[in-house]
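Notes from hallway chat w/ T.B., transcribed later so I don't forget. T.B. wanted the structure written out for a chain they're using in a teaching module, and asked if we could keep both sequence and structure tokens in one place. Agreed to drop them here.
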Amino acid sequence: MKRSHTAVLKSMLTLAFIISLSSGLVFAGQEKGETQSKAKLPGARPVIHAINYESIQQALDAIPAEGGVVMLPPGNFEINEPLVITKGDVLLMGAGSATHIHNKNEEGQDAIAIHPPADAKLPDGKPDPKPRIWRVQLQNFRVTGNEKSGRGINAKWVQEIYIHGVTCSYHGSDGIFLDFCFEDPRVSDCLITYNKATGLNTVGCHDIVVSANHFEENLDALRCTDGYNLCMSGNNLDDHLRDGVIIENTYGSIVCANMIEECKGRAITLDKECYGITLSANVIAHNGSGIILDDAHGCAVSANTFTLLSKDALKIGPKSGRITVTGNNFSNSYIGNGQVKRRTNDLKAAGLTLDKTRGVTVSGNLFASVRPKAVTVIEPTTHVLFGDNLLIDVESDHDKLTESIIKNTLIAPAEPVKPVAKPSEK
């Protein structure tokens, strides 16, 4: 009986193998391990499986000029020099975190470099003074470095770059650097952690989408410089060694629905002639400071929750003006019934600082148990509309505003505060 079952099983496997061959499935081949059945679909190009090459770079070099797909298998792959992509319409795809590329280089070299070829030419054969490559995607793998390595992913002049589902950690510089990848760069669903410089650093980009990423314990989480139309939403930022979001010389952008916690420095800062930016519906908790507008105009700060900031939950500086501040909550860890969630030595909570600014609307906000004051006014601050705000258990300088309108401001006392018996871990 056992022999009969074995024979039947062997026959079934043989039949399945023959059917698979006849149906055009791909098997490990001979030349560099890669043989494909004849494609039946007009225009189709074979997928390049890196497992059949001596190195990942050899697989990348095998991509034809018109682009292609390189599939990375599970495994740990150590490199000593950058993996280089110089062609467009490329997808480099792994098997999730089971595909791990580790950069062992200790001379500041990057793990992955993406850029146009050095000898790029125009259609007439002349050197291209502004070379570009288009549509490179990195997806579903892990890339790590060390304290002496360079960036994790360094992309220059790559249009419509798309980085999705990539873990980028422990690099000696930026995790991801997008250098004038100015046409529609997208970074989503990535884990960007423990990099010595900025997690995601963008320079000269526009129409940028940064969505649903985790940033943790980089020096800074995100830096956007000389760009416009940044859309940053649904990200989680935690434990950064300096700042959360730094935006400079950028306009027409939105930072919304992000969780920004425990940055040692600023949660969000706008500087160097920013304008037309909305910061909305973010939770900004337990950072060194909150939103700092150093040089910003025509911006809205709305519906954010500021809690447990060491100082300056929101600061509008002398170079900033024409700012709308509305619908925000500035608070400590009060949980009702005269109790706070935090220990008595962790009751810090900061308010709004108006530092020699002008042209600001402050309306519909709540300031509760913040210190030292709900509103700190550094003179001269003028032309402020301060109305319809509720102040509970606070002191405030808003009555020092000059050439301003102050109306409908309710100041209320607090209930006696008692710490809870078992405070939270944080």
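Follow-up for T.B.: The helical segments are 2-22, 56-61. Might be a good example for the class.
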